[in-house]
Amino acid sequence: MTTPPLTRDRFIERYGRYFDASRVDAIRKLNYLLIEARGEGPYVYDTEGRRYLDLWNVGGIHSLGHRNPVVVAAMQEAMRGEDFGSLFYFSEAKARLAETLAKTGPPGLEVTFPAVTGSEAIDQAIKIARGATGRSEILHGNHGYHGVTGFALSMMAPGEMRDWAEPLIPDFRAVEYGSIAALERAISERTAAVVLEPVRTDYDGRAPEPGYFAAARKLCDATGAKLIADEVVTGMGRLGHLWGMQRWGVSPDMLVTAKGFSGGLFPMAGVLMRSGTLDFWGENPYRIISSYAWSNVGAVVSRTAIEETLRLLPQANAMGDRLDTVVNDLAAKYPALVRSVRRTGLLWALDFRDEMAGALFVIGMFQRGVIVVASSQNLAIPKLYPSLVCGDEQIAELAQKADETLASLS
Ligand code: PMP
């Protein structure tokens, strides 16, 4: 007897109670429930055989396409001999990954501190900045999303994403993202770090004015604060370069990577930093111990993911230019719905005139088999994070289904 497919209804009936009921219910009510069966390239398939064009890719985890064959093959090969290894020891797999990061990262960032998740890596970067400077104040761009652990959550804008967990960690202060004047007013010799994303991905997809990061760099140099770039989303090719800060031509003091660094297959994260940053630890190298930080298998996956990203970027950037035309044509056709389109590299933010229209667009696209998301902090601005393997077929599919969805909303 063959088991029946795990339909959405069967999933809810049979397994729904094993997950957070409010989440299952909320997703079901939005008709946004996907029971994943498999992923392949730019697509995800559900258990009922429906195909979805994935233009979210969990914000970049699947930037190389689902189950990228080069990364899968490297992982399979690694698993013939490697395992997790130990956080105390080194290995060739980890050494080669660290060397690759040093050679492909912004100039001056030579050392990588391993971590597992983006939130964890952000927490480590902030603690290290506090330790290295002996100061406590952390300035961060307003409406950023930096994760859900203690230090990371302390940067979340007030509201339902964080208020329930209060009190959080003291001495964090939001500054207006993109404003040099605001940063200049706030920064001082009390500031341990300034935490910024190269583009404010979760809220509005806004890129700062040219010169913003160069100015932030100068202000940090003048005050001795560390400039921390959160590249969990903007790294690994998203802004058209391997790292977003390379687009702005500025080297931060620390750069945090996760998501796409996993190659879509193995949880991996890291904090790149300048040599000597950890000197304040003195003789005790084990002030931060994270048992899972950098598996040997994962290290092979991440190194392959970097190489594959660099290989695919030229064609992906060309694809991005074609996709941009389609997105702008759609925005021009539906001006009553879409106010503007913001593009930076391979990231698009569609600025809808209101939150309801943005949310209905996301749901309408899902019902037509295209995954896009609005940000957790701003439903009016759905975003597109296409994988680097998208081509003309996927662009045509987006054009047609977005046109249908927008027509149905007007
Ligand atoms: N920084 C940014 C910009 C993010 O988008 C996220 C996750 N969405 C994080 C940090 C946290 O990463 P993780 O979910 O791996 O903890």
Overview of this structure, please?
With 410 residues, the chain is α/β, with parallel strands linked by helices. The chain folds into 2 domains: 8-67 and 312-409, Aspartate Aminotransferase, domain 1; 69-309, Type I PLP-dependent aspartate aminotransferase-like (Major domain) (Aspartate Aminotransferase, domain 2), CATH 3.40.640. Helix content is 37%, strand content 18%. The protein has 12 helices and 15 strands. The protein has helices at residues 8-15, 21-29, 69-78, 92-104, 118-133, 150-153, 180-186, 212-223, 244-248, 296-333, 355-367, 392-409, and strands spanning 36-40, 43-46, 51-54, 111-115, 137-141, 172-175, 191-196, 226-230, 254-257, 269-273, 338-344, 347-352, 370-371, 373-375, 378-384. Helix 3 (69-78) runs antiparallel to helix 10. The longest helix is centred in the C-terminal third of the chain and has 38 residues, at 296-333. It is globular, with a radius of gyration of 21 Å. It binds 4'-deoxy-4'-aminopyridoxal-5'-phosphate. 4'-deoxy-4'-aminopyridoxal-5'-phosphate binds next to helix 5.
